[in-house]
Every structure is written in structure tokens, then in C-alpha cells.
Design goal:
The chain has about 150 residues and is of the alpha+beta class. The protein contains five helices and nine strands. It has a single domain, classed as Aminopeptidase (3-Layer(aba) Sandwich), CATH 3.40.630.
Amino acid sequence: MRVEKITDNKKQYLDLLLLADEQEDMIDRYLAKGDMFALFDDDLKTVCVVVAIDSETCELKNIATYEKYQGKGYARAMIKFVSDFYKNNYKTMLVGTGDVPSILSFYESCGFEKSHVIKNFFTDNYDHPMFEEGVQLIDMVYLEKKL
């Protein structure tokens, strides 16, 4: 397993990024300014994008694993990699997600704790209703991890 930092042609991974953030113009808001990483285990499994928020905080804006490889530890390995990568530069990593128990549980198992909620984030910022595991995404739940 290896992780590479992607600096050119980040949009070539759009199919994967859209699994985690299904509206391209929302991805465009952070893709250019973010650091992108790709995890390979023979072939591509997972990508993520991390953006600096301020001098002490970065945010995991997107992490996605191809569906056929989900549940095999690739996203967890990517989170460990980026946490280690940024621990000397930032004190805290944030991640925002929908209010879906399995996703929140996953991030908590990776060392994140609930931080705050942005009400109506998904309904205010996306041009269509979004659903995850049958739950409509309305509020953005933020979690944070001390690096």
C-alpha cells in the first residue's frame, strides 16, 4: 500500500471525489487549494483532499473509496496517513459530514470527536436533496481530531 500526493490534474479523480461529495461545483470550491492524496494497493482505492483553515486547523474536505473496496480499511489507512502527515503543521483536523450514524461512528473510531453542527448546510448549499443510507442530509456535523 502506498499514498501519493497528487499535484497535477486532480480532476482526473472526479469520479471518486463525487462518491463523497456529489455536486461538482462544491468540489471545485476546495479542490484547487487543497492537498490531494491517493492511496494505491496495486490500483487506486481511495482519495482525499485536505485544506488549511488557519494556522492551527486543517479540514478533511473529501475522502472516498471505490465502493467495491469499501470496508477493507483503506479510508482508515488514509486518515492515519494524513493525520501523521499534518501533525507537525496543525493542531486540529476537522471533518464535516451528514448526520448518519454509521459515518459518524467511523470517524469517531478514527479518533474524531463531535465538535459542532451547521444547520441546513446540505439543503442550503446543494441543488438537490441528498441521501445517505436512506437518510436525507440536512445539517453538517463537524468532528475534530487533535493531531
